[in-house]
Amino acid sequence: MDRRRRASSTVDLRELECFLALAEELHFGRAGERLYVSQSRVSQLLRRLEGRVGARLVDRTSRRVALTPLGERFLARLRPAYAALGAAVEDARDAARGIRGVLRVGFQGTADAYVTGAVRTFRNSHPDCAIELVELPLSDPFGALRRGGCDAAIVLLPVREPDLVLGPVFSRRPQTLAVSVRHPFARRASLPAEDLADCPLVTVAGPAPAYWREAQSPSSTPAGRPIPPGPAVTTLQEGLTLTATGRAAMLLCRPTADYHGRHDIAHLPVSGLPPSALALTWPRNTETARLRAFADVLAEAAKDT
């Protein structure tokens, strides 16, 4: 009896891969295509997994496929565990062969000279490892990390996500306000933060967390005066376009303001606000030798900023 019980609870990676694919596709046929197996094989693997669990993980009707509440909880636990398993294999492979392969790094808005310089330093030190830079939407700084679209991401602070590691922090810079050259503020040399109460600010749309959106577009001044909310955007370019047309102003870090200099937008230093900063972040339990090496390069470069 004990032997049969142990056999029934043994983890089968193929079953777990099947469940993950099905949870993302919510379609047996598409899940099978991803795994290069038939639809009936997907059903068989799912039934075996549900047999091990002792309950249904997926509800299937003629019209839809959906996870059960237990399936949702199981998915939330399985995703990071499966990612950690893959990272462990990659880490062992890196240790055996040296730093090689591909590291995908996401960035928001602009990969400035600091980031590209760190990439060059890394590639000079590890010529067998390529870095792919992936642009992230302004409105979704953490989504690609959780979906596996990148291994790490360079994002604006703050980062308060319990499932993410906060790595090296760098590029602390004063904030600037981007306004249309026709805006009354455009004639000023600088701006105290309290004057933001007289200027609608471009806001960031979801799915970025509320605390993160508030940091990029505060709803009140340091003294508590309300700041009018402007239009919500999903990308930096949308925000700059709205700013140029005079619909709202937009807070930017200094490097981004310098990079996106244009004749129809003026940039004013803002006093009284915390500086902006960037950080490298990645999902917990997915750290590899490649990622550690790149984080070390950023941390070393940060000493000079």
UniProtKB/TrEMBL annotation:
<dbReference type="GO" id="GO:0003700">
    <property type="term" value="F:DNA-binding transcription factor activity"/>
</dbReference>
<feature type="domain" description="HTH lysR-type">
    <location>
        <begin position="11"/>
        <end position="68"/>
    </location>
</feature>
<comment type="similarity">
    <text>Belongs to the LysR transcriptional regulatory family.</text>
</comment>
<dbReference type="Pfam" id="PF00126">
    <property type="entry name" value="HTH_1"/>
</dbReference>
<dbReference type="InterPro" id="IPR005119">
    <property type="entry name" value="LysR_subst-bd"/>
</dbReference>
<dbReference type="Pfam" id="PF03466">
    <property type="entry name" value="LysR_substrate"/>
</dbReference>
<keyword id="KW-0805">Transcription regulation</keyword>
<protein>
    <submittedName>
        <fullName>Transcriptional regulator</fullName>
    </submittedName>
</protein>
<keyword id="KW-0804">Transcription</keyword>
<dbReference type="InterPro" id="IPR000847">
    <property type="entry name" value="LysR_HTH_N"/>
</dbReference>
<dbReference type="InterPro" id="IPR036390">
    <property type="entry name" value="WH_DNA-bd_sf"/>
</dbReference>
<dbReference type="GO" id="GO:0003677">
    <property type="term" value="F:DNA binding"/>
</dbReference>
<dbReference type="GO" id="GO:0032993">
    <property type="term" value="C:protein-DNA complex"/>
</dbReference>
<keyword id="KW-0238">DNA-binding</keyword>
<dbReference type="InterPro" id="IPR036388">
    <property type="entry name" value="WH-like_DNA-bd_sf"/>
</dbReference>
